[in-house]
Amino acid sequence: MTSLLSEIGLNIQEAHAFSTADGFSLDVFVVDGWANEEIELLRNALEKEILKAKFLEDLADSKQCKRENT
């Protein structure tokens, strides 16, 4: 997550991580560096980077699976 924030130009000023007894976790970041006041643009930029990272992770997993099965 920290690299995703960096990719879109945000600087992490503070970070906190919390976990619950039922297995959930919450990461909270205080950032600066977002030039736009529009939160929706930030949300879209984060979603784009998360989807890109997820795609690359799935692709790597798929390649690893193929190697193990050959």
Identify low-pLDDT runs: none
> Looking across the biggest beta sheet, what order are the strands in?
1-2
Helix tally?
A: 2
Total beta strands: 2
What is the approximate shape? extended
Radius of gyration: 16 Å
Proportion in β-strands: 15-25%
**Major sheet summary line:** 2 strands, antiparallel
- Work out the count of structural domains: 1
Distance between the amino and carboxyl termini = 33 Å
Classify the secondary structure makeup into a structural class: alpha+beta
Helix content: 40-55%
Mean pLDDT over the residues: 87
Order of helix and strand elements from N to C terminus: HEEH
GO molecular function, one term: hydrolase activity
Protein name: ACT domain-containing protein
Domain ACT: 1-61
Keywords: Hydrolase
Which secondary structure elements does this structure contain, and how are they paired or packed?
Blueprint: H1 2-7, E1 11-19, E2 25-32, H2 39-68
Antiparallel strand pairs: 1-2
How would you sum up this structure, described in words?
By secondary structure, the chain is an alpha+beta fold. It has one domain. Helix content is 51%, strand content 24%. It contains two helices and two strands, in the order αββα. The protein has helices at residues 2-7, 39-68, and strands spanning 11-19, 25-32. A two-stranded antiparallel ribbon has the order 1-2. A hairpin with a 5-residue loop joins strand 1 and strand 2 (25-32). The chain is extended and about 50 Å long. It starts with a helix and ends with a helix. The mean pLDDT is 87. This is ACT domain-containing protein. Keywords: Hydrolase.
